[in-house]
Amino acid sequence: MERFKQIGLLILGAILMASSFAPFDFLLGAMIGLVPLLLIEDQVSKGKTSRKWIVFGYAYLFFAVFNFSTIWWVKNASWIGVVASVVVNSFFFALLTTFYSSVKSRLSFKAGLIAFPAFFIGWEYIEFQDWDLSWPWLTIGHAFGNWPKLIQWFSYSGVLGGSLWLVIINIYVFLIVKSWREKEEQFIRFKKAVQLALVILIPSIISLIEYYAYEDQGFEQDVVVLQPNMEPYSDNFMNSQGDQYPSLSATSHVRKFTKMADKYMDEHVDWLLMHETALPKTETNYSIHYSPSIQVLKKWRASKYPNTSILSGLAFQEFKTDEDLIRNTVLPATYKRTYDGKYYEYFNSSVLINGEHDTLPQYHKSRLVIGVERIPSYFVYFQKYLTDFDSDRGAVIYNPNNATQSEREIFYGLHDSSAVAPVICYESVFGEYLTDYVNRGANFIGIITNDSWWGDTPGYQQHWSFARLRAIETRRSVARSANTGMSGFINQRGDELQKSVYLTPDCLRQKIKCNSNITFYVKYGDVIGKIGLGLTIMILLNLIVKKLTNK
């Protein structure tokens, strides 16, 4: 019976954690959701048999329920993505919980209280890095996405500061409950309650003061964002050969967009943003300058809105020359091969169209969705058993790995030195990653995305809320164009200025400020995450030494 109570309590805690994310935004859930896990670990760790495996099992259950309850909607695009996320992410957090339990038992209870937030934040920092199993969506600091008044200090700490705050709050609540269970003196419980109140109130008050004192900085730009509401699985794509046509031809597709935009555009508009992969035909390095779709956009802009710069999503293939092949005896994992023996790389890209750049500057998405745009490198070796494989050169016909670029790119407008960070979809989840755009001169953030893969689920709402955090971290206004909800504008405090309705074709227009000031977070990045990782390594080394010396 006791075990069933423990399982029920764990599930409740996990659901409370999940409820803190959009669309529920129940922030209290994130403040107390970890408490059941800490209480049960404390209870189990006092046992004498197999406690580590029991702790691991309970922790795995907790994080699996939390993971699934938060991102179940991914199943609309990929059930494999859901399963992989739940299995892998839960494993690592359960492992860290087990390490925390070992620190408590082998070092001290106080050492454990230091270890738990260090392990948590250190691992979340690792999740933000570019590696095969990166999945930072569930960073618990993201629960603050729709609470901008409380986290203005993210301009110093970034989202990991929010994660640390929540973990510390959970620890204090755990200590208070533990103190009550163990019937400690009333004064001790009161002291801990006062400490908890201060931990909550001091950062909140500091943030509120900064929120009401801060005013958007910089010069104005007049921006329009387009939301066409195209069906993503059937109406949005065709390949470079013109196969798999959507319901409209490529040029008719684009003319539909321009007709929508005409209702909101005039000669004063500085920027028009069109969503991820808005141009329906996959262009190549040979076709892009002659693309009928791009020519339609260029002529429309030149004839009606010559002062406007257009940022659009684009699917792009770069075919390789003989020289490229000679340089690579074994081709990179991103190389793909057509059935007639040509090699190419595929990019999810953005393109700038504004008349001054006939070269059509491009930026290629470089933080890719695991399992959809990128598979772990070691999986590539198994593809020869599943697909047509060129064993001599290493390129496969079916290869889900998109290519990336090593450096961030910014696009310059025509007036007032405006410079946009062309952030593509999933990239907006990565706080420190976006700082590189700003350090290169971006004075506002342009997010182009296609969130319609998941349907009318919490996915697009969570994604929008994360953009609000990026605005605070960088103190950059955000203009966001989604294929369907949510498109809109966010100011430098993280406030929603405008946003669209899901499944509704729309255009929105807003004057936003372009800021050139650099925040502490932009300059130094995830300092808290690096400290957490450093403490994690030191604690684990100490734990290993203790175990080896049997002390």
Description:
The protein is α/β, with parallel strands linked by helices and 551 residues long. The protein has 2 domains: 2-214 and 527-549; 219-516, 4-Layer Sandwich (Nitrilase/N-carbamoyl-D-aminoacid amidohydrolase), CATH 3.60.110.10. Helix content is 44%, strand content 15%. It has 16 helices and 16 strands. Strands 1, 2, 3, 4, 5, 6, 7 and 16 form an 8-stranded mixed beta sheet that branches. It has a 6-stranded mixed beta sheet with strand order 10-11-12-13-14-15, covered by helices on one side. Strands 8-9 form a two-stranded antiparallel ribbon. Strand 13 and strand 14 form a beta hairpin. Helix 8 runs antiparallel to helix 9. The longest helix has 28 residues, at 79-106. It starts with a helix and ends with a helix. 49% of the residues are buried.
Task: Provide the fold topology.
Blueprint: H1 2-19, H2 27-32, H3 35-44, H4 51-71, H5 79-106, H6 109-127, H7 154-157, H8 159-181, H9 186-213, E1 219-227, H10 250-262, E2 271-273, E3 279-284, H11 292-304, E4 309-319, H12 322-327, E5 336-337, E6 343-353, E7 362-364, E8 389-390, E9 395-396, E10 411-412, E11 419-424, H13 431-439, E12 444-449, H14 458-474, E13 478-482, E14 488-490, E15 496-499, E16 506-514, H15 520-524, H16 527-549
Parallel strand pairs: 1-2, 2-4, 3-4, 11-12, 12-13
Antiparallel strand pairs: 1-16, 4-6, 5-6, 6-7, 8-9, 10-11, 13-14, 14-15
The structural domain count equals 2
Count of beta strands: 16
CATH topology of the largest domain: Nitrilase/N-carbamoyl-D-aminoacid amidohydrolase
Shape: globular
User: For the CA atoms, what is the radius of gyration?
Assistant: 25 Å
How large is the count of helical segments? 16
Q: Can you tell me the residue ranges where pLDDT is under 50 for at least 5 consecutive residues?
A: 384-394
Query: How much of the sequence is in beta strands?
Result: 15-25%
CATH homologous superfamily heading of the largest domain: Carbon-nitrogen hydrolase
Pairing-aware structural class of the strands and helices?
Answer: alpha/beta
How far from one another are the termini? 36 Å
CATH class of the largest domain: Alpha Beta
Q: Which architecture of the largest domain would the CATH scheme give at its second level?
A: 4-Layer Sandwich
Helicity level, as a percent range? 40-55%
